[in-house]
């Protein structure tokens, strides 16, 4: 066991940060530091190694090392479920280390699959519990020296997941098999009775309980029609919904030169969508600036929070999985430099903008569908003298190998991360009302790591920079549009 632990440690050290770029490797690393370490620790506590254990604990405190916990292991398993759903990944392929036909040297054992399935089981997520317990059951039967205890746990939980997903006959057959191999198992009799009662309610007679076994069912949602937004979001994350030819024909790129500073070094702008306007500024943050921001932020990253409408406080939320930190304007010269650059990019006043938010999305990291602006009836908006969030600037500081796109649901648009670039859009229409077409999400990272920096700009100070239109339907044709000629036909230079 000790040799196995040492071997794993050497592999992890050799791979370095790359061990966190693949979701299966990341799960195994967290499991290694949570489950495997506990076993080693317990063994060492049984002999004279207690002093050594104490020294390790003291060194952790001294070096401010945070080891992952059981909660982190559950989070890693939940991330795998999210990735499975969004990217339509096959359970067997995942357990064998394959992602989109690309293999790795990391396979999951029956025990690993069981731990993943157990996380779903405990959360009463029987859809994923069934997928992973079935995979664990398939694997444990092929192992040369399977753990009898693991086999019992897998069979019991698999039978109940089958039952909850409507496969009652299959659940009954499996729990009866468990009773045969483990006659003294405490819960088999109770579950057999539960399953038989369920079959009686379905109209089956006792002699029909074990006959005509129907194909296995495993529905993710009870009512698929209620999850239309979820399906659109996931399809966008897979980049399966292309923009129509008519819309594409309207899009173009241009050089933004509407300020004296930009005459010699214009911004490269790509319009990715009209109605509402969304653009990418290419090459607006350098690798050197990215490295400095990451270095300043890294040690301060904490679990991302959202503002609760009920408490008006920032709290962790299951629909936003990332780590973040806020950098104040005077905290580093790079932040001040980016602020000046954002003003030139957007033509908006940053006096009342929020601090620069840095976020890191690791294994399965994502931000579910949301608006950046506050609703009119939100008590949070009443407490903001600077007004609502008029616009968002999102810098991409890395480029994950797979995943991590920004998906706009109503307009069915996917924007893939482009390192060194920045995505920009207006959250409010010209009248100041929230633009519901900006309902968007950060897709989960499948392979790689995603770093972003974002700036939320508020209404105050924009009265003359982005005035109300004459009509409610008035909107920009390009960034900083005040009624001048469009850059497609004329140079975007201030007259």
From TrEMBL:
EC number: 1.14.11.2
Subcellular location: Endoplasmic reticulum lumen
Major subcellular site: endoplasmic reticulum
Top-tier EC class: oxidoreductase
Limits of the Fe2OG dioxygenase domain: 352-459
Sorted UniProt keywords: Dioxygenase, Endoplasmic reticulum, Glycoprotein, Iron, Metal-binding, Oxidoreductase, Vitamin C
Gene Ontology cellular-component terms listed: endoplasmic reticulum lumen
Domain of life: Eukaryota
A single GO molecular function term of this UniProt record: procollagen-proline 4-dioxygenase activity
Cofactor(s) listed: L-ascorbate
Protein family (similarity comment): Belongs to the P4HA family.
Function: Catalyzes the post-translational formation of 4-hydroxyproline in -Xaa-Pro-Gly- sequences in collagens and other proteins.
Identification of the protein by name: procollagen-proline 4-dioxygenase
């Amino acid at each position: 066991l000790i040799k196995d632990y040492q071997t794993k440690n050497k592999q992890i050290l050799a791979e370095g940060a790359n061990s966190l770029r693949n979701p299966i490797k990341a799960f195994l690393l967290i499991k290694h530091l949570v489950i495997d370490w506990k076993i080693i620790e317990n063994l060492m506590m049984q002999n004279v190694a207690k002093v050594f254990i104490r020294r390790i604990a003291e060194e952790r405190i001294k070096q401010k090392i945070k080891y992952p916990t059981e909660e982190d292991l559950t989070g890693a398993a939940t991330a795998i479920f999210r990735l499975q759903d969004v990217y339509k990944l096959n359970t067997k392929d995942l357990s064998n280390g394959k992602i989109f036909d690309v293999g790795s040297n990391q396979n999951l054992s029956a025990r690993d699959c069981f731990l993943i399935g157990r996380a779903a089981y405990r959360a009463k997520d029987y859809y994923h519990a069934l997928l992973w317990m079935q995979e664990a059951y398939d694997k444990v039967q092929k192992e040369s020296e399977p753990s009898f205890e693991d086999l019992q746990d897998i069979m019991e939980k698999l039978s109940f997941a089958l039952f909850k997903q409507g496969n009652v006959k299959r659940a009954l057959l499996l729990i009866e098999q468990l009773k045969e191999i483990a006659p003294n198992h405490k819960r088999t009799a109770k579950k057999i009775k539960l399953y038989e009662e369920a079959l009686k309610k379905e109209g089956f007679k006792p002699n029909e309980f074990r006959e005509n076994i129907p194909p296995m069912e495993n529905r993710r949602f009870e009512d698929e029609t209620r999850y239309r937004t979820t399906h659109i979001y996931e399809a966008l994350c897979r980049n399966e919904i292309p923009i129509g030819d008519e819309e594409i024909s309207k899009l173009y790129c241009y050089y933004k030169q509407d300020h004296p500073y930009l005459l010699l070094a214009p911004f490269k702008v790509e319009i990715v969508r009209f109605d509402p306007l969304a653009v990418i500024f290419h090459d607006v943050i350098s690798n050197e600036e990215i490295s400095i921001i990451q270095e300043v932020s890294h040690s301060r990253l904490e679990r991302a929070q959202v503002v609760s409408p009920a408490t008006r406080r920032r709290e962790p939320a299951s629909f936003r999985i990332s780590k973040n930190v806020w950098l104040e304007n005077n905290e580093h010269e790079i932040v001040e430099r980016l602020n000046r650059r954002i003003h030139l990019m957007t033509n908006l006043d940053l006096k009342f903008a929020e601090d620069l938010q840095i976020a890191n999305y690791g294994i399965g990291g994502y931000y579910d569908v949301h608006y950046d602006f506050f609703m009119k009836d939100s008590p949070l908006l009443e407490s903001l003298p600077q007004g609502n969030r008029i616009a968002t600037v999102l810098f991409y500081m890395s480029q994950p190998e797979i995943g991590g796109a920004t998906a706009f649901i109503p307009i069915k648009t996917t924007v893939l991360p482009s390192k060194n670039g920045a995505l920009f859009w207006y959250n409010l229409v010209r009248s100041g009302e929230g633009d519901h077409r900006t309902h968007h999400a950060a897709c989960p990272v499948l392979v790689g790591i995603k770093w972003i920096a974002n700036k939320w700009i508020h209404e105050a100070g924009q009265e003359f920079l982005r005035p109300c239109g004459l009509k409610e339907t008035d909107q920009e044709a390009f960034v900083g549009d005040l009624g001048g000629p469009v850059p497609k036909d004329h140079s975007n230079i201030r007259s």
